[in-house]
Design a protein that fits this description.
1 helix, 8-stranded antiparallel beta barrel, alpha+beta
Length: 138
């Protein structure tokens, strides 16, 4: 009887924990902020740790651009968006052209999100703005 009761308690504890683990992280939504221009980001959860990310940047009419694609974001808020650099040229003299991908890393902490643009993204915006900056959830 004691073993049955212990087994039932253990099973109940596991069942109660499973829904908590299955909840999607609270990352989806809209974010806006400043950095290398006015930044905005829309995150839409696809499945698991996969999200659709749409990032735009503008700088008072001097520069504008955007990038979108699938981002992988871990439950602790680290993520990466990687999309093909359409101007990729392995023989180019300009470093950003030699990068096969535009890579943007994410760091989400509560309502704040930090974006860091890697090489290979200049073709997605002009030289006067970029995708690096800090955004707040709207």
């Amino acid at each position: 009887m004691h073993r049955i009761l212990m087994g039932a308690c253990l099973l109940a504890g596991l069942v109660l924990q499973v829904p908590a683990l299955a909840q999607p992280p609270g990352f989806p939504g809209e974010y806006a902020g400043q950095g290398e221009g006015e930044l905005s980001l829309r995150l839409h959860r696809l499945a698991g740790n996969r999200y659709r990310a749409d990032i735009t940047t503008t700088d008072a009419g001097r520069c504008a651009g955007g990038v979108d694609g699938e981002a992988e974001i871990t439950p602790d808020g680290h993520g990466v968006l990687r999309t093909a650099n359409e101007e990729y040229d392995p023989n180019a003299s300009t470093p950003w052209l030699r990068e096969r991908y535009c890579t943007i890393t994410f760091r989400i902490e509560g309502r704040s999100l930090r974006l860091e643009e890697g090489d290979g993204c200049l073709g997605f915006h002009g030289a006067a703005c970029g995708f690096t900056g800090t955004l707040q959830r709207r």
